[in-house]
Amino acid sequence: MIAPWRYSGIKRIPWSEFTTFGPNPGVFTESEQFRILGERHRAYDREIGLMANDTHQDVITDTGQPPVFEEARDPVTRRAFIKSVIATGAVASTGGLMLVGLSGCSDEATQAAGSVERLVTLNVNGKSRPVDVLPNETLAMTLRYKLGLTGTKLACDRGECGACTVLVDDVTHNSCSTLTHSVRGRDVTTVEGLEQPDGTLHPVQQAMIDELGPQCGFCTPGQVMSGVALLKNNPNPSREEARQGLAGNLCRCGAYDHYLNSIMRAARVS
Predict the structure, then answer these.
(1) What is the pLDDT along the chain (270 residues), one digit of tens a residue?
(2) Which one, out of 34, 87, 187, 226, has a CA that is 20 to 30 A from the CA of 240?
(3) Does the residue 225 lie in any domain?
(4) In this structure, what DSSP letter does residue 170 have?
């Protein structure tokens, strides 16, 4: 709350002296109390008006002059605080640029401690893909919005549904919960990378078509990737083993039996 004595034309009288409207001979007479109280209320209204309009031109005192404000008890106002935050962010950003950018001019330059190199090269579907990656960027975001591999679906975005499942070194990962920087130097496979160069589908993909596995199809890429990982480790699973292999993938349509039939068909074919 703004201190009411900031208005320069008013004496600094504590609120406690105006708790009653009766005479107070030790301080002011009754009429003097009412006069000062009214002036303080008007000064407070003026200052609130200044904050709302952010200008001194619309507020004129009884003398026809703009009001003059004294320093508040707390020198940090809301506006000053916001400006200081913006200034601090700009300085920090510029400092980081100079620290990392200018250091590249030296042959003995080393990366600043705690910083992350943003331009990285990912091995995705057998190809090296250079990409600019933020320090906190997830693999799902990189694949979909920077590499254009939209077969990886984003659903829950917190590692619960499995729709974003990809293979990292032939192991299933929820890409929505995997930082892109953590997969540098590793082999990433998405659903787009299962098809052969001549257009031949992976046995799991073809089995999904033959068994009419998908319904809405949104969770299908994650189901396919989990099935591929399962058959890599266990080419001839039982139906219960296949069920366990797909346990991390949710199907909101409830087509679990269709997906299991597809995996079992792919196991027989392969």
Answers:
(1) 444 444 444 444 454 544 444 444 455 566 676 677 677 767 666 665 555 454 444 445 455 555 554 444 455 566 677 667 666 655 554 444 444 443 344 444 455 555 667 899 999 999 999 999 999 999 999 999 999 999 999 999 999 999 999 999 999 999 999 999 999 999 999 999 999 999 999 999 999 999 999 999 999 999 999 999 999 999 999 999 999 999 999 999 999 999 999 999 999 997
(2) 187
(3) yes
(4) T
Closest CA relative to residue 217, chosen from 199, 235, 205, 228: 205
Answering whether pTM is above 0.85, one says: no
What is the C-alpha separation between 37 and 46, in angstroms, rounded? 14
Residues 258 and 240 in one domain: yes
Q: Which of 147, 144, 152, 142 is nearest to 127 (CA)?
A: 147
Q: Which domain holds residue 253?
A: 203-269
